[in-house]
Amino acid sequence: MKTTEQNQPTFIHNVKLVRPGESIKPGTALIHDGRIQELDGSAPEGAQMLDGNGDLLSPGLIDLHTHGIGHFLYERSPEEILAASEMLPQYGTTAALPTLYRVFNRGSLEHLARLTSALLNAKGARFPGFHMEGPFLALPGAGADCIPGDLALLEDL
Predict the structure, then answer these.
(1) Is 125 left (phi over 0), alpha (psi -120 to 50) or beta?
(2) Cα–Cα 20 to 30 A to 71, which of 42, 43, 86, 157?
(3) What single string gives the DSSP state of each residue in 4-20?
């Protein structure tokens, strides 16, 4: 569900609320500045009113290890990162760490810099950084390209 104005509170009624350690129950939610401010309260004066149509309402999900969504793969290009950012919220994901697994050599630092710039321009889900897979942490044969240890490369990354 999208709220209307970022500076105007939105009161959503007729929703099923997901709460930690509790069963899913009907309730209401007050959203302000893109964040849940209160559950099961009253609508403040001047709030935008939305009927949740009995849908499920939960905080946004954070995906800590994802290589992409749909046909978008994060390490291919900045454009794929930006497109994925727009698609992820449709499935409840509001933040993610794009997982990269083949950008660990000196020649790919420029590509990594281009990908990093896309993180800052994402319009949908937020990307606070990357999840960098092996080869530095992978056990032998674990699937990532193995390269010799290189402290200078780690510092550059």
Answers:
(1) beta
(2) 157
(3) S-TTS-EEEEEEEEP-T
Domain spanning 10-57, CATH class: mainly beta
Q: Is the pTM of this model over 0.90?
A: no
Would you list the domain boundaries of the chain? Answer: 10-57, 61-156
User: Helix (H) and strand (E) counts for the chain?
Assistant: 3, 10
Token readout for 55 is: 């849908």
